[in-house]
Amino acid sequence: MKKGSAVHKILEDQVHTTVAVDITSNEDAWGLRIWNVIQGLRTLRDTGMTRELEIWGIVDGLVVNGVIDELSYICPDRELEEADEAGKVPKMVPLPEDQATITDFLGMATLENDGAGALMSTRSLLNETNKIYICDVKTRGVRSIPKGASFRPTLMQLMIYHGLLSDLATNKVNADVLFDRYNINPSNPFSDGFIAQIGSLNDPYDPSTPELSTQESMTTLLSHNSPRALWSLMISEFALTLPLGTKSLGSVLKAEYRDQTTGDITGVRTFLYDENLISGYVEDEMRWWKGEREAQGVTVAEAYKCGVCEFAEECWWRKEKVEEQRVKMRESRRARSLV
């Protein structure tokens, strides 16, 4: 995980400049998180790409939080998108592993050359599309790409991100539920020190006018001097970034795999957002989370997970499946003997 975090940090630094900010209260901490999202959305609109964008949402009454690795105006698979718009492809169809991806054409093979190249490419596409696409970056110690059951967590993760981002863009997230969950008083003003620190930072999306950017940052914070007010500003930024709401989000989702040591891209998987699939998945998982159904064991395709599970020896599901297999073997031997 440390190696993976290092790769993510390098990618983030290609788009954002990290600055330490001292905080003295929960409200300041949340103000910083919301401010980072505002700056991320502005960076996306200005350069065509942003990374490490935090999002929140309410799923079945419970707070869900995540960080989207990358948002950009580059469609990761035009063919798949066009086929989907023409109704010629079913949902959730991952690309064949040997199919060329957008990264092949942009030459984004390593961490050293993919940052500037991506930004230049997205700038050229700003006038060609109004859709924004979600990408998740996974780092691995092996060069193979997950398949089948191993790929399912990433598939579901990206679909959930799509839904959360859509809800924020259409102002469907009840901020009071989040503030209550994190013990935040949404009406409390930010500390003077926090406003001074943030106000002294130049907005990264307008480096040509640093003095104006600093003044605007201070003015913006003073006129939105509470978590609730700054949240409202963030929602307006989402509306500017995704003016058509859900329709501003591309249906093609991308999982990008990188070597955890070198950062080289080792493969890409793209697939379509499927509302019915993710809705059914979330509904079933939430029933377990809320204690409304019993836990279910893994499928045969995922039985390899038992090898690293600390509860394997005492797992009732595993013992039950082993016994079922024994019964089948006995019945099979009995049937052969009768013949």
From TrEMBL:
Its cofactor is [4Fe-4S] cluster. Pfam families: Exo5. The keyword Mitochondrion does not apply. InterPro entries: EXOV. Keywords: 4Fe-4S, Exonuclease, Hydrolase, Iron, Iron-sulfur, Metal-binding, Nuclease. Signal peptide: none annotated. Monomer. Belongs to the EXO5 family. This is Exonuclease V. It comes from Stereocaulon virgatum.
